[in-house]
Amino acid sequence: MKWRHFLARWEGVRAENRWGRALMAVLLLLLLLLAVERFRKETIVVMQPVTLAQDAWITRNQAAQSYKEAWGFFLAQLTGNVTPGTARFVEKRLKPLLAPAIYHEGMNALRAQVQQILNDRVTLRFEPRAVEYEAETDKVFVTGYAFEKGATSEEHRRERSYEYRIQIAHYAPLIQFMDTYEGKPRTQAVLKQLARQSEQEKSSHESEK
């Protein structure tokens, strides 16, 4: 009788051990899955851009709209306010921000502009009025008034727009595209409208012939 009780208790202990090992294996598997997911998940950094009022976030390869707007605003201020004394400084600041795809073209254009500023003793001043982000093209447009003054000439004012496409690589901004021109920003809606006007003018000229 005692022997049967001993065997019953022994079987219970063995069954408890089997369930305990199975439970430990499941917990270990869940721990490994959580560790893998933790290492795969990108770190999100939340910051307060100095040029905007709202928070921005940035990961290894992405960033919030407000972060890109803040960089576009900074770049327009940097390239729009240049004197003969700061021209070389602006060139050095922009150099590490250019993406490899546009590096040589961008640096050649920048060096030519810097040399012209030095030769003509031109002072450029930019007063921003609006910052616009276009999600369709991932572009930032900064519009305002540009003032240009030579060594002996009067200051001239023109409406000017700066256009940037900024990519994030390893938490750092890279300029994939940049342009500046007189007038309003050339958004997709504006470009489509200009294309329609061009087609209408072309059709009108053809009908007159």
Question: Your description of this structure?
Answer:
The chain has 209 residues and is α+β, with helices and mostly antiparallel strands. The chain has a domain at 47-186: Nuclear Transport Factor 2, Chain: A. It contains five helices and six strands, in the order αββαααββββα. The strands form two sheets. It has a four-stranded antiparallel beta sheet with strand order 3-4-5-6, covered by helices on one side. A two-stranded antiparallel sheet has the order 1-2. A hairpin with a 4-residue loop joins strand 3 (123-134) and strand 4. The radius of gyration is 31 Å and the shape is elongated. The mean pLDDT is 81.
**Biggest sheet: strands, sense, closure?**
4 strands, antiparallel
Number of helices: 5
Main-sheet strand order equals 3-4-5-6
| Elements, N to C (H/E) | HEEHHHEEEEH
CATH class annotation of the domain at 47-186: Alpha Beta
Weakly predicted, low-confidence segments: none
Radius of gyration: 31 Å
Provide tags for this entry.
209 residues; alpha+beta; Nuclear Transport Factor 2, Chain: A; four-stranded antiparallel sheet; two-stranded antiparallel ribbon; 26% strand; elongated
Summarize the structure.
This protein is of the alpha+beta class and 209 residues long. It contains five helices and six strands; from the N terminus they run αββαααββββα. Helices cover 49% and strands 26% of the residues.
List the helices and strands and how they pair.
Layout: H1 2-40, E1 45-47, E2 56-58, H2 65-80, H3 87-94, H4 103-120, E3 123-134, E4 139-149, E5 156-169, E6 172-182, H5 188-208
Antiparallel strand pairs: 1-2, 3-4, 4-5, 5-6
